[in-house]
Amino acid sequence: MAALNIRKGATSHSAYDLRDPNGELIESHTLAVIVDNESGVLARVIGLFSGRGYNIDSLTVAEVDHTGHRSRITVVTRGTPQVIEQIKAQLARLVPVHEVHDLTVEGPSVQRELALLKVAGKGEARIEALRLAEIFRANVVDSTLESFIFEMTGTPEKIDAFAELMRPLGLIEVARTGVAALSRGV
């Protein structure tokens, strides 16, 4: 599931004006968590979310410091401002966690996701799928007489938009990596 962009000034009729039962605005946040790269760390971080009923919209993990044996976990989650603060505080208290950054509040960031989309089609649907792929800068990485696999990189919203356009043209399957994000600047 892709992250939602929540606008503080949205009207109550907007699909993006999500509120909890108490009327508080639900926001999407991207968190970067630097952890020890050791067995069980990911399970502990995920356990924190599941044990408290917090949802994860996107999750990526990779080692980022081979000599220091550190990994970066990028989590997109959502909740009220109070819930987001609780998540950050609870993550920071975990023993294998070295840093917790809320990229949503720390300033501009770059977020990208990789997706593979399999589309089956013949005739006009096939031609239209190729035309849209060109517009969205998706690459054909596999082709048969009856299907394509497109590879695209972009924001979660861009991938969602491309997938929606491919649905009526024969979208069969989608695989997504989850969000990778970095703060802009120094």
- Quaternary arrangement of the chains shown? single chain
The share of residues in helices is: 25-40%
Order of helices and strands: EHEEHEEHEEHEE
CATH homologous superfamily name of the largest domain?
Answer: ACT domain
Derived from helix and strand composition plus strand pairing, the structural class reads: alpha+beta
What does this structure look like?
This protein is an alpha+beta fold and 186 residues long. It folds into 2 domains: 27-102, ACT domain (Alpha-Beta Plaits); 109-183, 2-Layer Sandwich (Alpha-Beta Plaits). Helix content is 26%, strand content 38%. The chain has 4 helices and 9 strands, in the order βαββαββαββαββ. The chain has helices spanning 41-51, 81-93, 123-135, 156-166; strands spanning 27-36, 56-65, 70-79, 97-102, 109-120, 139-143, 147-154, 171-176, 180-183. Strands 5, 6, 7, 8 and 9 form a 5-stranded antiparallel β-sheet that branches. Strands 2-3-1-4 form a 4-stranded antiparallel β-sheet, covered by helices on one side. The model is unreliable at 1-17 (pLDDT under 50).
Features:
transferase, elongated, 4-stranded antiparallel β-sheet, Alpha-Beta Plaits, acetolactate synthase regulator activity, alpha+beta, disordered N terminus, 186 residues, ACT_dom, acetolactate synthase activity, branched-chain amino acid biosynthesis
Task: Please sum up the structure shown.
The chain is α+β, with helices and mostly antiparallel strands and 186 residues long. The longest helix is centred in the middle third of the chain and has 13 residues, at 81-93. The chain is built from four helices and nine strands, in the order βαββαββαββαββ.
